Amino acid sequence: MYKVNVNDNSFEVTLKDGQIDIDGQPFEWDIARINDQSYHIIKDSKSYRAEVVNADFKKKSITLKINGSKYDIELKDKFDLLLEKLGMDVAASAQMNDVKAPMPGLIFEIQVAEGDEVKKGDPIMILEAMKMENVIKADGDGVVKSVKVKKGDSVEKNQVLVQF
Fold first, then answer.
1. 154 is in which domain, residue-wise?
2. Do 47 and 123 sit in the same domain of this protein?
3. How far apart are CA 28 and CA 43, in angstroms?
């Protein structure tokens, strides 16, 4: 089972034994590949020309132009739907919340300030623990709301260091 969003319309698509059902109704069509980007479709005795404008397989999205009209399509499989239901989908994980200390230690250096915009992977601060310097990096994109520690502070494991 898949959930498919086409522009702003949502459909449930199932595939079984070569049969496609959309919202529980059988979908009958004939499709022929013209080249890598173009297809010829016959549906309900009508002819359509479909062109792939853009395809992003990581995001499971595709943009098609069918007879001159543009369609943005997003696909979610059962795993995407489960992650979404549990609140662990990609969109939620890309947004940062709080950065917490991974271990007890001393704040050696702070590399962000309130109002700074950070991207995933940007260094936020350096935590000195067990005579080693540990660079704490952003695990998503965000804007710093507040820095809860200052250079030289002693912190405990899971203590909030920066809020986004």
1. 95-163
2. no
3. 7
- Residue 96 CB coordination number (10 Å): 20
Pairing label, strands 154-155, 69-76: unpaired
State the total domains in the chain: 2
Whether residue 53 sits in one domain with residue 21: yes
Tens of pLDDT, residue by residue, the chain (164 residues):
899 999 989 999 999 888 999 999 999 999 999 998 999 999 999 999 999 999 988 889 999 999 999 999 999 988 888 877 776 665 555 556 789 998 999 999 999 999 999 988 899 999 998 888 999 998 888 899 999 999 999 999 999 999 98
Verify that 13 and 79 share a domain, yes or no: yes
What residues contact 102, with CB distance under 8 A and at least 6 apart? 127, 134, 136, 157
20 plus 39 within the same structural domain: yes
Q: Could you tell me the pTM of the whole model?
A: 0.52
And the tokens for 160?
């909030």
